[in-house]
């Protein structure tokens, strides 16, 4: 169509240029002749214009008749995926359109019927119109939700600033506490190291004392053995001493007897009367 109108415009401009050229280069042409030529040119231009328009309209009609849109394909486009189209056969077929935006039972408006229409094209157009209305409604709802969310965000930002200040203060307090705990931990670590050293020395001393105890026990056992042996020797010596004392007593008694007898004999010899 654009090409036809462009050719028509070029043709008309060409005709006008020819007439103007003839009038400018032919002084003998009168005003009447100029008007006569313009009438002929205008009639020819109108004839060509009408012919081009007729051909263009006929082409558009043929294109519309033979190249009409595929209704089934349009119904399956992504824009119509939330609508169901059902054909109701009969003497006058009908097309019913229904929403299927959601299966949530709390949202019945997402599953309502759009209507019943005698033509699939009308059903498709109504579905697009309903989709536009639905999206407009959703946009309004979302705008309201956005305004509410913006207000909540503003309030949250205000409270968040207060929370940030409080958190910073609490963090500073916790940092002081952590530093104090770290210092205490360092001191406790030093004390633990000192205690470990003392414990090590104590273990070493205990091990040394244990060695001394074992050595003293061994010496005690040896002393007990020596004492038992000395006791045995003492008992033997005491037995010998007792025997020697007994023997000595016997010898003393015998000596006394012998001396007594000797004295009696001497007295008898000195005093025979007796």
Your description of this structure?
This protein is mainly alpha-helical and 274 residues long. Among the domains are: 2-66; 71-157. It has four helices and three strands. It has helices at residues 2-25, 31-66, 71-75, 120-270, and strands spanning 83-88, 94-99, 113-117. It has a three-stranded antiparallel β-sheet, with helices on one face. Strand 1 and strand 2 form a beta hairpin. Helix 1 runs antiparallel to helix 2 (31-66). The longest helix has 151 residues, at 120-270. It is rod-shaped and about 225 Å long. The protein starts with a helix and ends with a helix.
Q: What are the secondary-structure elements, in order, as H or E?
A: HHHEEEH
Largest sheet: 3 strands, antiparallel
Low-confidence parts: 19-30
Count up the helices: 4
Fraction of residues in β-strands: 5-15%
Shape annotation: rod-shaped
Helix content: over 70%
Number of strands: 3
Structural class: mainly alpha
What is the first-to-last residue Cα distance?
Answer: 207 Å
Radius of gyration: 71 Å
Mean pLDDT level: 80
Strand order of the largest sheet: 1-2-3
Write the layout of secondary structure elements.
Layout: H1 2-25, H2 31-66, H3 71-75, E1 83-88, E2 94-99, E3 113-117, H4 120-270
Antiparallel strand pairs: 1-2, 2-3
């Amino acid at each position: 169509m654009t090409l036809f109108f462009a050719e028509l415009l070029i043709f008309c401009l060409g005709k006008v240029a020819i007439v103007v050229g003839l009038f400018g280069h032919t002084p003998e042409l009168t005003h009447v002749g100029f008007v006569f030529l313009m009438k002929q040119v205008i009639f020819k231009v109108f004839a060509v214009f009408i012919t081009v328009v007729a051909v263009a309209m006929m082409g558009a009609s043929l294109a519309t008749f033979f190249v009409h849109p595929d209704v089934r394909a349009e119904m399956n486009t992504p824009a119509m995926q939330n609508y169901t189209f059902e054909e109701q056969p009969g003497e006058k077929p009908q097309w019913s359109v229904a929403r299927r935006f959601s299966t949530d039972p709390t949202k019945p408006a997402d599953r309502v019927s759009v209507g019943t229409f005698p033509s699939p094209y009308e059903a498709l157009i109504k579905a697009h119109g309903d989709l536009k209305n639905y999206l407009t409604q959703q946009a309004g709802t979302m705008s309201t939700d956005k305004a509410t969310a913006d207000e909540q965000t503003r309030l949250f930002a205000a409270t968040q600033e207060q929370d940030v200040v409080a958190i910073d203060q609490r963090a500073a307090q916790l940092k002081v506490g952590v530093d104090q705990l770290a210092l205490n931990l360092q001191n406790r670590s030093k004390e633990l190291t000192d205690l470990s050293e003392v414990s090590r020395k104590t273990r070493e001393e205990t091990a040394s004392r244990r060695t001394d105890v074992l050595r003293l026990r061994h010496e005690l056992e040896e002393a007990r053995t020596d004492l038992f042996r000395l006791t045995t020797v003492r008992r033997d010596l005491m037995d010998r001493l007792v025997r020697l004392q007994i023997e000595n007593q016997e010898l003393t008694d015998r000596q006394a007897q012998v001396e007594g007898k000797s004295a009696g004999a001497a007295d008898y010899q000195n005093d025979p009367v007796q």
